[in-house]
Design brief:
By secondary structure, the protein is α/β, with parallel strands linked by helices. It contains ten helices and 14 strands. Helix 2 crosses helix 4.
Length: 279
Amino acid sequence: MHELVFLKLGGSLITDKTQPYTPRLDVLEDLALQIATALQTHPDLRLVLGHGAGSFGHVPASEYRTRDGLPPRSTPLAHRERDESEENYWKGFAEVWYQASVLNRHLMKAMHDAGVRTITLSPSASVIASEGQASVWETTPLRMAMSAGIVPVIHGDVVFDEVRGGTILSTEDLFMHLANALHPDRILLAGLEKAVWEDFPARTKKIEKITPKNYQEISTGVGKAAGADVTGGMESKVSQMLELVQELPETTIQIFSAEEPGNIVRALAGETLGTLIGT
């Protein structure tokens, strides 16, 4: 039985989010080797790999407010001349794309060096959003990559938006849309945090499992993110994943730390780490 797993390597894990444009190259090398080991050990495992933008994408995204899109105008975008604010927005849009792609190349080099067959399918080239949510995505290349034994790689990226002009979709945004098309068995969100905490940033009360029923009681302590993050941090991540498991109750989701040696191998092998999100 082929198991389909979505794995995200968080931006806080693969970059130093407190230092602009700083990859953690040693971490990327280790993560790639762990993924290679897991795929060799479990040849029936099908994997979609995603990664965050970390200190590459989030820094210019925050400066140019790229996720918010263009300011509302009475005249449709296609029928008016651009003003200075629009020119600045599109300058930032292109800069976010460039920086996200630079980080992606660091990851892809690590995967290549580890012997993992991967291909980046950049969302900016294939996804159209509407009001900040993915609405159109031609997933045939992604499906064909998996059929060929190649790991498709996606990442947080700028995309064109039918309402906003442009926006940013996080890896979680993309996973939510893709999960409804592919129905993964598991979604693994690997970052720095060992789990979701009930009292972040004190980190003394680990949450073992989050469900739609208990989240309201614990949500106030979940917290945001360390460093630049235009997509909402942990609180947004958990809310999105809860929405997803209600739509796909057979999918389980884990939020865990990949800082601990071997945790990617353990999680891909089926071990429950960190916090489980389910129905």
